[in-house]
Amino acid sequence: MADDAPGAGEPPFIADARAFARRHRSHPAFVILGWFVGASPEEADVLIQHLYCAGLPSNTIQIDESPARTVAGLALLPLYYLATKKWWWRPAARTDCNVETIDPAFFNRGFSRLYPLLRGSRRLTPREGGDFGGEEKTLPCLSSVLLQDLLRLAVVLPAWIPALALLSWRTGLNFLRTCRQAVAVYLCYSGYFRRFPCRRFVTFDDMPNHPCRQLAFKRHGGEEQVSIQNGERGLLPQCAFGMVDHYCVFGPAHVGMMRSIGTRAAVIEPVGALWLNAWRDEYLRETAEGMPPPRYDIIFIDQGAWPHNGVPKYFDDALLELLDNLAEFGRRHPTVGLFYQLRPYGTSGTEHRAAVLRRLQTRYQGVFTVLENDGKGQSYGNILRAKLVVTFESSLGFESLMMGKKALFVNYSGNPGETACPDSRFQIEDESADYPSFEAKVSGLLAAELREVPQAARDRCGFFDGRTQERVAESIARARAPL
Known about the structure:
alpha/beta
């Protein structure tokens, strides 16, 4: 097989990215970037492949900005970070383990049993404030930079920006933007890992396991970076060529998926879906005497509103087509109740939540009943009382199937990488968004009985035994560099 030919299960963009890296690894734009982030030749190739994939238009995560703003953002990045980040500080003592979390609710639900099982000295890195029971904390990962990094960047920018602009023009991919994102990741994590050094870094932020975070970690003496999967991942360019030492994923299906899109990790191990397992005890109490009677006919799983959820317009168009078909189904079947399950937005997602509610109040006024969510398991409790769960690609669809509830994944985007479920009983893939086909599928699922958990859900969710946090700790303890 030729080097550029895709391997078994690999999407075509993987071979394209490898070929691109071979052709362009000596381009001044990448030579400068590789020097700046301290990448070895092998690491530089992975970084180039990641940047190539990050710039492809089929990604669901894009930044919509003009070329002038991109150039200005890169040229002014040193000054902007001088003004907005902390650069005058003394390094803290090295710990054996730093663990990134969001807030106390997030920590208590997903990490409170894992954290004490991590050996050696440790501290938390929360993104938001709150009471963590007196545990030692650091500032958020993106709050600090190294002054010497800003100075080095300022020195190379006069040569780097023209090189990136020429490369972008010749290839048709916006490397000005993707390289600005890459260097911003490197600057912040270099500052974090120098200010709060650790031998092991554990994080829920596995999207997209950017190579520059790993390079910054290794530069400052890090030994093992551990990512814990925090949402559904697919065969999309934005997920490709991540770099991490140890990747704890939901189920065996994700092991193959991550390998097929070039993830560079010594260990990729299925441990279970963290949030599904966190809710297991409540699930057992709820179902002790059998499945609760249905309260909701159809629940749609919230996936945000463009542009607040950071996805391109085509993703949002697919969501709207799905919601339009659901609304039409409701009009034609007035006895069927439609419910919209919000995700937990927290204190930092107020604007995003408001955008979702505005959409429901304007485009879909009176169609959906909103189900609130404060991050304490309401979505799981509501799903348990639903006849059918509908989603574009949310991991809650697989978790619903794992809980014995019917789910339907609907991909109207035209992008095959967005197709989540390999079991055709629970998946629609139709760029035309044909309503009669949708109506027939929904009606059939509402009437059907789910006799057993589908294998597709078992492959994606892995386990439903309540031991995901313990399994993560066991996986870490078996790592190449145990502490």
